[in-house]
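Appendix B. One record, verbatim.
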Amino acid sequence: MTVVLDAGHGGKDPGNLGTGRYRTAEKDITLAVARKTAAYIEERIPGVRVIMTRTGDTYPTLPERVRIANEAQADLLLSIHCDSFEKSSVTGSSTFVMGLDKSEASLRVAAKENAAVFNEKDADGFDPDDPDTFIALALKQEIYLGRSLQLAELIQTQFRQRVGRKDRGVRQAPYYVTAYASMPSVLVELGFLTNPKEEDFLHSDQGQDYMSSALFRAFRDYAQRWFSLEAAVQEANEGPRDKEGTEETKGVEVVPSPEPFAQPMWHTAIASDCGGDFCFSIQAASNRRDTPLTGPDGFQVPHTSTQQVGNVYKYRVGSTSSYSEACLMRDTLRKNGFPDAFVVAFENGLRIPLESALKKAKD
């Protein structure tokens, strides 16, 4: 597994200067936390390859940062930043993924972090205010959205429960680094340097240790889940393998993962149709003929329901109130002949936006 840690800003771009009480700025904090996070990963999960977009006070452009991750064929991109606001009373940590949320708060932070890209020659025509560009990039990232959201939730949980930071939640915004990354990616705002107390914490060695440790623990939990899933799928397709695992999985404590399409794959609470007020399900395929849903090898996929919309039949697989469980089902389907499978949400039999269902599940 390869993870890219991106320390925001650097070199000629200091990032935000906070209250002005320190000679150091955002770029120094992000680099310190990225270094500490990398050290935690390399020491405790030696099978993981860690790449940093910068290791000193240099300034890789935003397109360069994304190219580093894409060319390394990384499995994850984690970009680290610090927030600012005109009111010094505002505090808290937040984590962002690429998405269609254009709320005032999301656009404020995105505009700040994307500012440098408009002075760069190789910005790939990025314009978050252009509806066509924005929608195209959001759709491109949909394939990674489930994993990105899961990592973001793990990060926020660690910040809240283990470091005692105010939880500003997981949000979606049009960041350049998350828009163009060909992998799950998140952008973390560690806290507000414009708040004196939070600024002191983030400038301190202890504060940086706590935040990097939280990032490491979230990454560790994420790696445990997805290492085990990928290993189970590969074992089912290729037959038995060395129980000690590959170089990538050595050193990672994994949890058992079910066999693809075997009955244990579906949690006992999952039925063939949605129960309760709302649920997540997987739209695996669509067809103009009402025939059973079968994979490339002719096997019939269990727990499938069919819905006719106009002249098209849509095949939905499984149902669960757990978004994480739904993502597991989606990824297993994608690895077994249904590359376009995606998570959908329903309430009282009607499809609802995924973001609305995620909020309901969290509540």
